[in-house]
Amino acid sequence: MMTTSRSTVGGCHSGLKRPIAAHCLIFVICLAVGVAAPGCGAGSVAGPAPDFEAALVLREKLASATGATEAGEEKPQGTGWATLKGRFIFAGAPGDAKPLIVDKDTEVCSKGGMKLYDRSLMVDASTKGLANVVLFLRNSSRVKEPVPTDALVFDQKSCEFLTPVFAARVGQPIDVKNSDPIGHNTNISGTSFNQLIPAGESTVFTAGRETGLPVTVTCNIHPWMKAYAVFREDGYVAVSAPDGSFTIPNLPAGEPLEFQVWHERSTGRSGAISLDQPELKWNAKGRFKIQLEEDEVRDLGTLEVPADAISG
Amino acid sequence: MSTVESTSPAVQESPQTSVAPSHSHAASTAGRLSTFLSTYVFSKDHKVIGLQFLFSTLLWFLVGGLLALAVRWQVAWPWSDVPVLGKLFAQQGGQMAPEFYTMLFTMHATVMIFLVIIPILAGAFGNFLIPLMIGADDMAFPTLNMLSYWFMWPAFIAFGASFFVEGGAASSGWTSYPTLATNVNSSPGSGWGQTLWLVGLTFVGVSSMLGSVNYMTTIILMRAPGMTMFRLPMTIWAMFITAVLQAFALPVLTAAGFMQLADRTIGTGFFSPEGNIVNNAMAGAGGGQPLLWQHLFWFYSHPAVYIMILPAMGMVSDILTTFARKPLFGYRPMVYSVAGIAGLGFIVWGHHMFMSGMNPALGVTFMVSTMMIALPSAVKTFNWLGTIWGGRIQLTTSMLFALSFVSMFIIGGLSGIFMAATPVDIFIHDTYFIVAHFHYVLFAGTAMGVWAAIYFWFPKMFGRTMNEFWGKVHFFLTFVFLNGTFFTMHILGAVGFPRRLADAYHYETFHHLQPLNAFMTYCAIGMVATQIIFAVNFFWSMFYGPVAGRNPWGANTLEWTAPSPPGHGNFDYQPVVYRGPYEYSVPGIEGDHLMQTDPPNQAAAAAAAAAH
Amino acid sequence: MKRFAAVFWSLLFLSVPVLGVATFIVGPAYDIWLPRDVSEHGAAVDGLFYFILALTGVVFIATEMVLFWFIWKYDESKSNGPGRYVHGSHTLEVVWTIIPAAVLLFLAIYQMNTWADVKMRRPNMTPTVEVVGRQFEWRLRYPGRDGMLGTPDDLHLVNDLHLPIDEDILIQLKSMDVLHSFFLPNVRIKQDAVPGMKIPVWFKAREEGVFDIVCAELCGWGHYKMKGRVTFEPREAFERWLERKYAEQEATQPRDSEMAMASGVVSHPTQIAKNQP
Amino acid sequence: MKMLVRTLDMEYETVSAFAAQAGFKTPSGDLIRRDTRGHLSSGLFPVWVLGGVAVVLLLLTTTGCGKTAAASYRLNMVESAKQRLKPEQEQQVATILAALFGTPDEPIAPSECGLDAAKLHLAAGPVRSDIVGRKNGLYREHCAHCHGVTGDGMGPTAAFLNPYPRDYRPGVFKFKSTERADKPTHADLVMVLRNGLAGSSMPSFALLSDAKIDALSEYVKYLSIRGEVELALMRAFFELDDEDQGRLPEDREFLIEEIVLPVAEAWQAAEDALIDVPEMAADIDMAASIAKGKELFYGNKANCVKCHGVTGLGDGQVNDYDDWNKVVLQAHKTVQGGLEQAGEASTWDMDADEADEHRAELAWLDRFQKVLDGNALPPRTIRPRNLRQGIYRGGMRPLDLYYRIHAGINGAPMPAAKGTVPPEDIWHIVNYIRSLPYDFNGTLGVDKPMVARDRL
Known about the structure:
The structure holds four protein chains of four kinds. By secondary structure, chain A is of the alpha+beta class. Helix content of chain A is 18%, strand content 29%. In chain A, the strands form five sheets. Chain A has a five-stranded mixed beta sheet with strand order 6-12-11-8-9, with no helix packed on it. The longest helix of chain A is centred in the N-terminal third of the chain and has 39 residues, at 2-40. The radius of gyration of chain A is 32 Å and the shape is globular. By secondary structure, chain B is an all-alpha fold. Chain B has two domains: 42-295, Cytochrome C Oxidase, Chain A (Up-down Bundle); 309-548, Up-down Bundle (Cytochrome C Oxidase, Chain A). Chain B has helices spanning 19-26, 29-41, 46-76, 98-134, 142-150, 152-162, 192-221, 234-265, 290-307, 310-324, 331-345, 360-388, 397-420, 422-428, 432-462, 468-494, 514-544, 602-611, and strands at 277-278, 281-282. Chain B has a two-stranded antiparallel ribbon with strand order 1-2. Chain D is an all-alpha fold. Chain D has four domains: 2-65; 77-270, no CATH class; 278-318 and 383-456, Cytochrome c-like domain (Cytochrome Bc1 Complex, Chain D, domain 2, Orthogonal Bundle), CATH 1.10.760; 323-381. In chain D, α4 packs antiparallel against α9 and α15 packs across α16 (423-435). At the B-D interface, α1, α4 and α17 of B face α1 and α2 of D.
C-alpha cells in the first residue's frame, strides 16, 4: 500500500516539478536579460578617479607655499628688433565657394539677387595664396609698439562682416560698425560681448584679455554671418593677405620665439596648421620655433599647406 | 487526523494514470521534449495551468514585495543611502532620485494588482479548483485556458522590461491619470515605460477575459450529475460572479487603454485638453477631458476591487466551515450578498473621484450607492461569525489565516466607510488613510485568504501537506508585522499625511511623523523576511511533507474525492452529487460529515429536515 | 497543550481590538491626529469624522470581541461536543441586514448638508485669488485694485498665499500642465486642479496663522516638493501685504525691491501651525 | 461508458502497482521508472531552492547593508575629449581639483575664492535627515537630482527637462543684475532660488529659510568656480610648451595665481558691478510710452521683432542655441567631420607612423563620440521668449526686464541694447512688453483696462 502510494505521489510529483523548475528558470532568465540589457546601452564615460594621497600632498604644498613665486630660470634676453615674413599657399584645389542660405531681410541681404558665399577657405586663383591664416607669437619678453589708441573698424555691410578674420591688441578700441539699413547684433564668443548694433550705428568694444586661438564672431539675427577675431597683448600677430603673404615687424630679436599658426578650416587640433618643416621644429600643435638676429628680415618663403590639412 | 479514517478505504490512494510520463518513456528524447512541453509547459490540463499561474504570481509577489520595501525605505529615511539599490546611484552617493521613487510605488501597485492578486485568485485557484469542485474532468475550453496563461507572459515581459527602458518604468501611479500619463514629456516614466505599461495591461486584460469566459461556461455547463447551482461551494459561486464581473468590466478598461495609447503615440486628444503644455512641450490634438480617463478607469477598476476580494471570500467560507466542522451559516444570503456586491460594484466607481472636479452633485449619488455596498459585506461578515459560532474549531494554519481574513476584513470594510462619507473624504482622500484601507482589504484580506487557501489545498496540489508548525510561525509573524505596518497608517492618514510623497517631512504639518514611518518600515521589512519561512516550507513540503490522503481535512466538496494530486482527468470515477457542500457535524451519522458524493443517508435526511 | 495553543491564538485575535483602540488613543497623545482646524466648515467635517469613528469603533470592537470569544469558546480542545448543525437563521439574517442598512442610509443622508456647504453652495462673488498648479509650484494671481483677474495690475506670486480671515474666500483653481490637488490640511479643503477646468474652491478661515499648502495628487517626479504656504491674517494686514508685494512687483529700481524684500517675504515663519489634537 | 473505462484504468493501475511493489516488471514498466526518477530529482530540487534563498540572503546582507561608495565629482569629459587629454592628464586634473576643492562630502576652497566654509558644509554632503533639528546636505536634497552632484546639469532627472538644468561649470548665468560679461551677484542667485524661473523646471524655494538659501547660493558659487577652474586646467594643456612633457606645473604660481585667481576675482568683482538703472520718468504717459516702445520693438534700432517675431510669440528665430549647447553641437560636427575624413583616407598608402597617427585619430573620435552620447545631453534649441504669456524667466518686475534688455542674456543669443539704445528707450520697450500679454486698445483708463487673453 505504502509503495503504491509513494509511487503514485512520486509519479505525479515528477509531473508537477517541471512546471516549477521551468517557471523559476524562465522567470530568472527574463529578469537576467532585462538587467543585462541596459548595460549594453550608452553609459557615460568615467574619467580616472583623483589620486587622493597625491591630492593631500599637493594641498599641503599649496598651503605652505607663500604667495612669493619661486624664481623661474631666466629666459635669454636679446636686444633690437626684427621682421618675419612669408607666404602661405594652398596645394589642393579649393573648389568653388558654396553660397550661403539667406532667408531673412532678403531686401537687403540679397539685394538684386546678390549672393553671399562661404568665406572659410579663400585661395587666390592666380597665386594660389591662402588667405586668413592667423600667425602669432606665443610669448613675448618685450614689446616695441604701445597699444594703439585709434579704433580699429570692424564693419558689416549687406549682411556680411567685411573682414572675415581680424586681429587686435588687448586694450585696443574696436569700432563695431553696422553700415546696413537693418539692425544686426555682434556676438564675439568667449568674451561675453553680444551687442545690438542698430542700422548705421556703431559701438566700441575693447578686449579685456587674450583669446589664445581665434574666436568666432556671429550675428544671431542673421545666422549665416560669421567671422573670426584674435586678441593679443603684444600685437605680434598677422592674418595672411589674399595672396597668402604675411609680415610681422618689430619682433624681439636675439631670443627664441615660438609662433602659433591657425586656419579656420584646418584639420589639425583646434584649427592648428602644422607643416612638415623640420628645421622650424613645426609640431602637431601648429607651432614652430625660430630665432631672429637684430634688424633681420627673415622670409620663410612660400609655406605650402597640403591639401589634406584643410577639411573639404 | 481523526477525520482521515472517515473516507472509505476502498478508494484510498488508487494511483492515477498520469498520461504524459508513460508516453515519454517509449518516445525518443525529442519526443520526450515535445511531450514534456505539451504536458508541463504548454499543458491544457487545468491543474498544471493553475500551478503555472501560482508559481508565476508567487514569484511576482516577491518582486512586488521588494519594490514595496524600497518605497518604505524612502518614506522612512528620505534621501538616505539605499541598500542594494544604492549601487545604482553611486554617483548620487547612494540616494534615490525622486522619479525613481515614483516609479517604485507605481510598479509596486501595478505588479501586485495586475500580476499577483488578480491572476493568483482567478488564474491559479480558479483554474485549479473550478473543475475539481464541480466534478468536471477539465475546463470547457482547455486551449483557451492554456492561452489565458500564456497571454500573461507578454505582460510579464512588458512590465519587467519597462524597468530598463530609457526613463525607467511607468511612474504616473497605477491609475496612470492623464495628463501626466498621456503627455510623453510630463515625467521620465511617461515615456517608454508608460507605453509598455499600457501594453502589459492590455495583455493582462486579454488573459483575464479568456479565463472569465472559460469559467462561466465551465460552471454553467460542466457540473457533475446532481450538482445544482445551489449545491455549489461558495468558492465556485465567488469565482462565477468574479468571472461575470470581469467579462463586463474589462472591455471598458481595454478600450480606455487603447485610447490612452493613441493619445501618447498618434497624437489624439481623448484625455488632454486644448493647448495643454507640459514641461514646455505641447500635448497632442487637445480638446479632450482628463476626467474621462478617470471615469473609464474606475468603471473597470472598482469592480476589479471586488474581483480581487470575492474569490478569497469564497475560499475562506469553505475553509471556515471545514475547520469549524459546521454548516455554512446562511448559505443563500451569502450567495445573494456576493451577487449584490457584484451588482452594486458597477455603480460606485465615482467614489474614487469625489475630489477630482467631477460635479459634486454626482458625489452625493455615489456616496449613497457606496454606503449601500457596505451592506452585503457586512452580511457576509456576520455570517462568517455565525459559521464559527458553536462550531468545533480546529486551529490549523489554514484556519488561522482564514480567521485572520475575517478579522482583517472587518477593519478594511469599516475604514471604507470613512472614504464613502464625502465630507470626511475631503480630508483623508489621497492620504495614508486610504493606503491603510486598501492594504487591509487587499493584503490583510486577500493575501491572507490566499495563504489560507494555499495551506488548505496544498495536499490536493502536491499530495503532501505543508509543515504545520512552521506554517503557524509564518502566520504569527505575518499577522503581527502586517498590523504593525498597516494599522498605524490609519492615524498617519488622520494627520493628512499624503500618499506618494518622496519626502513629506519638509512640511511642518508632517515633520514629526518620521519615527512612526520608520517603525512601519521595520515592520514591513520583518513581514517580507517572514515570507522566507513560507517559501522554504512550501518547497520543502512539496517533496518531503507527510503524504496526504485524498481528504486530509475531512472536507465535503468534490475535489477531496479525487486522488491527491489528481491525475489527468481528475476523477477516477464520475462523482455524483447528493447534497450541498456543508454537511458537517450531521447528527446521527458515523463520522462527523457527509461528503457531497456520499450516498443518500436516512439520518442525514432526517437531520436536515429537522434543521430547516 | 492543544488548549494552550487555542488560548494563545484567541488572545492573539483579542489583541487586534485592544491594540487597535490603543493606537487611536496613543496617536493623539503624540500629536499624531487631525491637525489644528482654522476653518468654519472644518468643525462639521471633523464632527462627522468622529461620529463615524465612534460608530465603526463600536462595530469593530464588538465583532472582533465576538470573533475572539468564539475562538476561545468553541475550540475543539474544549471538546464541548460536536458542532451545532444549523444552516442559518432567517430572522437573524433579516435583522443584520435591516439595521446596518438603516444606519448606513442615515449616515449618507446625514452628511449631505456638509458636503453641499463645502462643495455645492458657492458664494456669489468674484475670485479672491487664482491658484494655478504647475510642475512643481503653486502660481498665485491676485486681482489687484480693480478686482478683476487678467488686468495689468494683477499681482503674481509663487507658493506664498496670503488670505484675510473671517470672510468668504473664493479661489479659482486651475492647472497649467497635469493634475494637482490643492490640499489645506488645516482648513479641511482638498480639490484636484484639472487642466482645462476652472474649479471654484471656497471657505472661511477663523484664525490667524501660517499653514502648509500640500499637493495631494501625483503630479510627476517633483510631486513631493510642490509645497506652498498660506498665511491667514486680518483684512488690514492682508491689504498692507498686498500693497507691499505689488510695489515689489512694479519695482523699477533695485532699492525698491530690496525694501520690499526686507519687509516682505517671511522666509521662515515664526508661528508655524503646530498640530493640536 | 466513461465511468466504465475509468474503473478499468483503476483496476489496471492497482494491479501494476502491486506488481511494482512485488518487484515484478509491469508490461509498460511505468511505475517503477517513474518512481525512481521522481525520487532522484525530488532529492536534488529542494537543495536548489534553499541554495537560491541562501544566495538572496547573502546578497542582501553583503551588498545591501554595506555602505555604497561616497558621492564623487565627474570630470568634464567633453572638454577633456575636445582637448585630447591623455588618461594621465585627466588623472592630474582630477587630483589637482581634489587638492583645491575636496570632495562632494568634504568641500573646501582656496582662500582666494572667499567662500564661506560653514555655508558650504551646510549645503554639501549626504542628506542627514534629522527631522527636527538642522538639516545638512541641502544641495543633494533639493538640487542634485537635476543639477547633478558635480553641478554639471546632468542629474538623473536632467535629461527629461526642457530647458535643461543649468550646467554651472562654464560659470555663465543668465538672470542677473550685472553687465552681460560679469558674474551674477550673490543676491542674484538668492533671487533665482527664491522665485524660481517661471516657465522652466526651476521651482521656487521661497519657503526655505534665508540661511538655507544663502548656503545653497554659496554652494552653487563653489561648484561654478570649481567647474571654471577645471575648464581652465584642461585648456591649459594646449598652452603647454614642449619641454613641459604634457604635465601641468603643480606650483602655487600656476595653480593659484594663473588658474584660480582670475576666476575668483571675477566672482568678487561682480558684487560691485551692478548695472545702474536710470529712473523711469515719474510723470511718464503710459500710453505714449507703450506706443514708442512698439515702434522700437519693430524698428531697426532695437530690432526685437527679428527674433521675438512679428506677433511677439517668440517665433522669429527658432533654430538658435545656448552657448553650452553650441559647444556640444560643435563637438558633434567635429566628430562627424573627422569620421568622414578618416573614412575617406585608406591605410594602404600610409607609412607606419602615419598609419599609427590615423589609428590614434580614429580612437580619439570614437571615444569623443562615446563621451558625447554618454556625458552630454543632446542639444536643444532655445526659443526667444513668447512675450504674449506674461511669463518671464528672469522675473516680471520692470527692473528685471530692463536688466534683460540692457545687458542681454549671457549664454543665450539675446544681445545687449546697452550703449546703442538709450535708457529711456529701453524703458519704453519695457512698458510695451509688459502690455503685450493684454489686449491693448491704444488708450488706457480705469474704465477701459487692458484684459488678458486667457494664458493657461
